[in-house]
Amino acid sequence: KRKREQEDLEKLQKTVDELDPKSDLKNFTDLPLCEATASGLRASHFEVLTDVQRAAIPLALKGNDVLGAAKTGSGKTLAFLVPVLEKLYRARWTEYDGLGALIISPTRELAVQIFEVLRKIGRHHAFSAGLVIGGKNLKEEAERLGRMNILVCTPGRMLQHLDQTAGFDVDNLQMLVLDEADRIMDMGFQSAVDALVEHLPKTRQTLLFSATQSKRVSDLARLSLKDPEYVSVHEKA
Ligand code: ADP
Ligand code: MG
Which family is this sequence assigned to (predicted)? Predict the structure, then answer.
């Protein structure tokens, strides 16, 4: 069974490597995804890719840093959650590997929404996932952190843990996501995010999504992304 899994994984990786990110993809089933993600999407009734998903997911699956700009409601959540699940799956991430992906959101409400989508499409994966948004006892939250593979957080609260929670190890982190980057900046989280990124390993993949493009967003991108691929989706006239 082990051998079979290994072969399937190698086959999947090969399909990803050979994927042309510019090829004309229409549905989630056109993407090289593992069965767990594919069936999670199917069960959640996601079928046709939105423009930003079609542009960003192949690049992200191939391991690129991505800076994606697309208006509110264009489907940016799945544009990063699908690559997060695939990255950890292909790394054969287990409960013993610690924190694999960190998703930063400007507000608690948005973090909860992301977490709910993650639970839906990730239901067939074995990863543990948690929310770090404050409003709970810091110590209680800290005790659960060490067991999480994927965290969705707000910047201030996450930084508090990184600064204060002894034994919370982020050295294995594979992927950082900054969602609603424009709002993160507008809400004055620049220095918290800068400090947060300082704690993270330099060799990682970073995805940054924003509803608008601005000087502040490109400042943040310069600090956190490496040779990013730019994906900008405009409304059709
Ligand atoms: P954004 O973050 O860009 O504002 P969301 O990720 O919150 O957008 O998605 C907006 C809405 O579109 C949500 O209700 C979501 O369920 C829906 N949606 C996202 N992707 C798809 C898709 N491929 N097919 C159908 N609905 C989708
Ligand atoms: Mg969003």
Answer: Belongs to the DEAD box helicase family.
**Is the minimum distance from the CB of 77 to ligand 1 under 6 angstroms?**
yes
Q: Where are the domains of the chain?
A: 2-232
pLDDT score for 135: 82
* Atom 25 (ligand 1) nearest CA: 46
Question: Does the beta carbon of 78 sit less than 6 angstroms from any atom of ligand 1?
Answer: yes
| Residue 74 tokens, joined | 């264009």
Which residue's CA lies nearest to atom 9 of ligand 1? 75
Write out pLDDT tens, residues 93-105.
Answer: 998 999 999 999 9
**ipTM of the shown complex:** 0.99
pTM of the model: 0.97
Q: Which overall architecture, per CATH, does domain 2-232 show?
A: 3-Layer(aba) Sandwich (3.40)
